[in-house]
């Protein structure tokens, strides 16, 4: 079979972009065997520039940056694009408007996995914007998945660990224990699963070690990307 070519908007952070590249290729090899591997275009940004835009809350600037990346990927031959990070899906509408190929949305992939596994209420852990801005939780809720997030102070703590540690490749036992404690609190509030809605959280707390069922956003997104890559083109009418 001929696979479609995916374009990844990566580098946010590069630690999780490695996971995308490895897991997409592993899934393709497992399904097709032999020497088969994925057709991937990766545009890996300098995350410091994106981080400056986040801190300034310059989302128009972020929109322009990611839209330009999407256009470069399409020009390079990408037949669909995927933003390899949760938070920057805040810019997904701008990317979709800038390209003429599909965008495989990370939130939709999480919703699909939650539905397939029978989860109805997801705790969402990620950056403060992912947890508190509507672009993420409202998209889950529109697909029938209720959401829970920590209180405001805890959201800030989760966010600080992400940017002071995880996106810089630092993974400590103390932060791991704190995240597990927060997951337990959300479980007590009624979550039947947790979405690891920062692509680095699964590196700190692998899903199998979480205190409740967990959906790693990387795993969910990769599953959706691979399904798209391997989908058969519809037959032409009258062919």
Entry keywords:
Asp_race, Rossmann fold, Asp/Glu/hydantoin_racemase, isomerase, alpha/beta, 3-stranded parallel beta sheet, 239 residues, globular, Asp/Glu_race, Aspartate racemase, 2 domains
Q: Which secondary structure elements does this structure contain, and how are they paired or packed?
A:
Blueprint: E1 6-10, H1 14-32, E2 40-44, H2 47-55, H3 59-75, E3 80-83, H4 92-98, H5 106-117, E4 121-125, H6 128-132, H7 134-141, E5 146-148, H8 152-164, H9 173-188, E6 193-196, H10 201-204, E7 214-216, H11 217-230
Helix pairs in contact: 1-11, 3-4, 5-11
Describe the protein.
- It comes from Brevibacterium antiquum.
- InterPro entries: Asp/Glu/hydantoin_racemase, Asp/Glu_race, Asp_race.
- Its EC number is 5.1.1.13.
- Pfam families: Asp_Glu_race.
- This protein is an alpha/beta fold and 239 residues long.
- It folds into two domains: 6-104, Rossmann fold (3-Layer(aba) Sandwich), CATH 3.40.50; 107-217, Rossmann fold (3-Layer(aba) Sandwich).
- It contains eleven helices and seven strands.
- The chain has helices at residues 14-32, 47-55, 59-75, 92-98, 106-117, 128-132, 134-141, 152-164, 173-188, 201-204, 217-230; strands at residues 6-10, 40-44, 80-83, 121-125, 146-148, 193-196, 214-216.
- α1 packs across α11 (217-230), α3 (59-75) crosses α4 (92-98) and α5 (106-117) crosses α11 (217-230).
- The longest helix has 19 residues, at 14-32.
- Mean pLDDT is 95; it is low at 234-239.
